């Protein structure tokens, strides 16, 4: 009887276990503020696992192998003996390649040793940037909807996320920056604006005018810095869109940490190689943290990637470069999925980059049994979440609701929106489209 434990001496091991279990949560867990609870990813990942026949357009990882030249360079790095530790701040050959490429991108000389840091993916690049440069109580402005990882990492660094919603032009199905709202959100504690272009989850590529408007806000506030998350920089498929490096704008080079990675570009999300590029004053504090997190990023992966980035500039499959082929390939895949969603009664929103498509699902009815069913990850069920559960369970298609990409005050903005990933084979996209169209047609016929 557990009640007797208060009357009898406890074994040493059990005493320690009970003491630890009853102790208050560590400060880091408290800073997460509930982010350690079940999430949209755990719930819809479980739904995918429980329904192996479902078509998964939820998480953003390609369902094909990397290009042959990428795999060949990985084998070559192993065969050439790159098996031991390398420089903690980045394998010299990869750091040199990145410095050379960003010197061209940014229009200034980038030093490989003091202005580049190689990290375990872009997520760690963001984490270490915030840990190194954010002080407790600082504020970080996020343009919503925003990748949900940002919120937890800001809290872990002791900061506060300040949301500024993008505006959805309903007539043009286009997301637009509200520069006045952005400027109004800047306060005495603002340390960073996080810019993500191409943008997850919307696929928006910020226009040159919008980039300049953000830069003008930064110029008006001397304390403000920018984290420019550019992991989708090589996946720009809108006909009139092009990627612009924010740090290349006048006066922004000294105030921007540019983050990117190789996973999305080369379909190697498991390699986990990312990087930060910026002035020494911002990057060297990140470099100093790296040996305390892991001694170095995988040496053979870094060695291979140093070659891969340059090989991708060469002609590929009839296109001027691999990067050019990649954009065309994703343009076709987006068109395939958009047509399927339209046939299923959804309205695809405009997006010019990345491999996610947002759709307005207002025309699809969600039965009360789904709206009233709560889950550990969604104790307050939202319409978009309920609809995605319905699609998973009854249509056999996994998609991601939009409300988790908003802060609590703005979640209603996502109630009709759903995110679909189109980094999938054409066969997978067609299968998902057919299932959705058939399910919606059957539902309307009941």
* Alpha-beta content class: alpha/beta
Strand order of the largest sheet: 2-10-9-8-7-3-4
**Could you say which overall geometry the principal axes of the C-alpha atoms support?**
globular
Distance from first to last alpha carbon: 56 Å
Helix % is 40-55%
Q: Nearest-angstrom radius of gyration?
A: 23 Å
Unreliable runs, pLDDT <50, ≥5 residues? 1-10
Our count of helices gives 16
Overall pLDDT metric? 93
What percentage of amino acids are in beta strands?
Answer: 5-15%
Give the oligomeric state.
Answer: single chain
User: Tell me about the biggest sheet?
Assistant: 7 strands, mixed
Number of strands: 15
Please give a quick description of this structure.
The protein has 446 residues and is an alpha/beta fold. The chain has helices at 12-22, 27-32, 40-50, 68-79, 92-106, 121-133, 149-156, 179-185, 208-220, 263-266, 280-293, 299-311, 322-343, 368-371, 383-395, 426-445, and strands spanning 55-56, 116-119, 139-144, 160-165, 167-169, 174-176, 190-196, 225-229, 256-261, 274-277, 347-348, 356-360, 397-398, 400-401, 417-421.
